[in-house]
Design a protein that fits this description.
The complex is a heterodimer of chains A (127) and B (329). Chain A is α+β, with helices and mostly antiparallel strands and 127 residues long. Chain B starts with a helix and ends with a helix. Classes of the chains: A alpha+beta (127), B mainly alpha (329).
Amino acid sequence: MVLFNYHAGYVVIRLALAGHKQANRPFYRIVAAYNKRSRDGKYIEQLGSFDPLPNIYNEKLVSFNFDRIKYWIGCGAHTSKPVAKLLGLSGFFPLHPMTVTEAERRRAQAKLAETATGTEEEKQADV
Amino acid sequence: IILHNYILTLFTFQLGHFPLKYFTSFFVSHMYLHSPRAGAKPRFTDAAVQDVLSRITGLDLQKVFRPIKQELKPPTYKLMTDEQLEQAIQVATEEAKKQLQMPPVLPERKPINDVLAVDKILDGMDTAKYVFTDITYNIPHRERFIVVREPDGTLRKATWEERDRFVQVYFPKQGRKLTPHVLFKEENLKTVFSQDRHEDVLNLCLVQFEPDSADYIRVHEATYEDLEKNGKYNLLRSTRHFGGLAWYLVNARRVDGLIVDMLRRDMLQDAISLVSLFYMVHPHSESAQEAAGQQATGTDLLKVRTTQSGYIDLALQAYEEKAAEGSAS
């Protein structure tokens, strides 16, 4: 029997940039592809989409085909970090530790910014 | 000439496809006809109620198959024998019955307030909300998981309006828009009603909203109120919305205008069936109990009703005079 589909690599579920002829408007497809393929090249199956720019209602739309994701994970597919973070945010996976770290870093930044503006206002009030 | 008209309308229907806009997948499958539970209040879907409503909707072929805005095609003429014409008319009545299938009347849906997780550690993770939709193909849209992660970390289920929007994004339905038409605002509705375009409004509403959403019920009630205020019942007469109108009026107990209109157009049978429907739905009202006591049928049913308002009395008298004149001459 001739094996047509032998690949030395493994399957990953990752984000592939779609519509890369459009500058400054990213849109990602969540895709099951072989590991060594190019990021935007031929994939095995599309499992969803991710729009990183928020819409008029301030929402970032993510779609997942959970049925097929379960199948590919059952077949031994790995997930990339951004996909793992998104799945963690959606509640399908447990929360990714980097999401928590990023949230903490943002809060620290926000606090710094607050204290900075606070001291500026004080200075202006003094003057 | 009348024969030609029928043939013309039959063939413009059969050749030109009816715009898919006005068929939603709800109605192509048959609506369940429930049998009534003993002693319970009759519902819209009961077989007896549906029977009455479809009878009073009427079946005016000329109106059902009137020319709609389609691509212009030249009409075809066929030469038929009388038998073939009758068969063609039967086929047309079957099609008309399918088109006159009534859209469902459901109680307003309860808002979704389900919170799946509260993660305070994620507070401030991003400035925007993340909306996760499940795109699995073979689940009904009502059971789909659509979940929102707020910037303060709470994971909650999406509200009904959000659900409608996202289902439309990923599984677009023809004719439906993401933001509803400007027509559905109050001021614009008034303008459209003054132009007598209630049927178009109701068709648009059917396509755009889910039957149990607040907007759908609001638009329908506004339309029915306006029709009842101006007595323009004939606009909806041979359309699929007539049953809904009749049901709304019966539940609001304001059937008098409709009965008078029917008597004026000499539709006695329809008036009788409407009154019997009223008694079915409100068996505890005075006139219902009187009628049950006297076991009235036919025109007597209407006369029992007249104890409540003089209008119907006058209308009945006028109808009987006309009938007498007609039989005399």
